[in-house]
Amino acid sequence: MSTWTRSKNPMSRDIQSDEVRSRVVAAAFQLFIEKGYEDATIRQISERSGVSSGSIYHFFSDKEGVFQHLTLQVFETTLEVAEHGAAGHKDAYLILALKWAYLVRLFSADKRMAELFSVAYRSWKISQELLRVATSRHRKLLGTVLADWNEDQFFIATLQLGGVLSALVDERVNLDSLNEEKRIRALLSTALHAFGVEPDKIQGLIQKAIKLLPPITELAAGLGAGDLNLRGPVVDGVARRQPGKLAGVNSPKSAR
């Protein structure tokens, strides 16, 4: 079934490996939205992607590994979109605000996206990796502005931000009582304060971030899973590839 073959050229093998990973993640994203995380299987991902089950296990270990790769890719792509939205602006705090506001836009636009985040935060393996990556990203983004900060300070600020984001995800999945702007303001008020923004500048940064917030469709630039329309109140048009039907899972289980 698989069209993937091993090449003797190391560079060619690297390219093929990236292509295989992309195909698997794209197929998994589609299946997670169609069937939900629990009901999607490695066999189905294999059939959808055209990659053998053995190759999927080789690259990702199990279904949770595929999901972790997918989640990290969503976060990385979100940062790229935020940086694009802040083009022409050199304020590192604005880029920070745009990144996290965009994540809120994603799960506010469709409950399935909130359910994806909910699964990720309930998996210690995935949430730990997200925390590590986010802390590193924040240190890189704000290292010049916060030159006197150490690793623990960046970690603690990132932890605070993640806690509020997780709470807002749960609110979206279980209550859905807030709109997108209220969620953004709640998250950014905490995030900007945690990362040392002066109180009298926080609301101005939030307002600017909301104004510059890119449309959801820009997320598709870095993901490659085909077009999947969002359900629910879509902001700025139609978005692509949002997984869902994942709520109520305490931790992603191994592939079936």
Explain the overall architecture.
Mean pLDDT is about 85; it is low at about 1-5 and about 230-255. The chain has a domain at about 70-220. With about 260 residues, it is mainly alpha-helical. The protein is about 65% helix and about 0% strand. The radius of gyration is 19 Å and the shape is globular.
**Globular, elongated, flat, extended or rod-shaped: what is the shape?**
globular
Could you give a short account of the major beta sheet? none
- Beta strand %: under 5%
SS-based structural class?
Answer: mainly alpha
Instruction: Please tell me how large the radius of gyration is.
Output: 19 Å
Question: Tally of extended strands?
Answer: 0
Count up the helices. Answer: 10
Helical residues, percent: 55-70%
Low-confidence stretches at least 5 residues in length (pLDDT < 50)?
1-5, 230-256
The average pLDDT value, as a whole number, equals 83
Task: Summarize this structure as a short list of keywords or feature phrases.
256 residues; 10 helices; 65% helix; mainly alpha; disordered C terminus; 0% strand
Task: Please sum up the structure shown.
The protein has 256 residues and is mainly α. It has helices at 10-35, 42-49, 53-60, 63-85, 92-109, 111-122, 124-142, 151-174, 180-194, 199-212.
Task: Tell me the layout of helices and strands.
Blueprint lengths: L9 H26 L6 H8 L3 H8 L2 H23 L6 H18 L1 H12 L1 H19 L8 H24 L5 H15 L4 H14 L44
Helix pairs in contact: 1-2, 1-4, 4-5, 4-7, 5-6, 5-9, 5-10, 6-8, 7-8, 8-9, 9-10
